[in-house]
Amino acid sequence: MPIKDNAKKALRQAKKRAEENRIVKDASKKAVKTAVKAVETGKDVKEAIRLAQKNLGKAAKKGVMKKKTASRKLSRLMKRANKTK
What one-character DSSP code corresponds to residue 57? Predict the structure, then answer.
C-alpha cells in the first residue's frame, strides 16, 4: 500500500480510470458480439452494426483501444456482413 499522500491519490485515480476503461471496453465487446449474432441470424443487422461502430469509435477515441484495432474489428465485422448478403 502507498504511504505518501500523492501515491495514495495516484492509486485512487488509477483504480477509477481502470474501471471507466473496463466499462467502455466491455460495451464495445458486447456490441461487436451482438452485431456478429445479428449478422448470423439476419435480424436487425444495420442497427447492430451501427451500434458496434459507435462503441468501437468511442473506445478508440478514449484511448481504451488503439484506433487501428477498432478499425480492424469494424472492418472484419463489415466483411462478414457483406459476405452474407
Answer: H
User: What secondary structure, in 3-state letters, does 4-38 show?
Assistant: CHHHHHHHHHHHHHHHHHHHHHHHHHHHHHHHHHH
Side-chain-facing half-sphere of 29: CA atoms under 13 Å = 8
Q: What is the tens place of the pLDDT at every residue in 15-36?
A: 999 999 999 999 999 999 999 9
Q: With contact defined as beta carbons under 8 Å apart, do 80 and 66 qualify?
A: no
Question: Which helix H or strand E contains 2, and what residues bound it?
Answer: none
Q: In CATH, what class is 5-84? A: mainly alpha
The residue behind cell 436487425 is 44
pTM of the model: 0.88
Q: How far is CA 68 from CA 31, 35, 47, 59, in A?
A: 18, 19, 23, 11
> Residue ranges per domain, the chain?
5-84
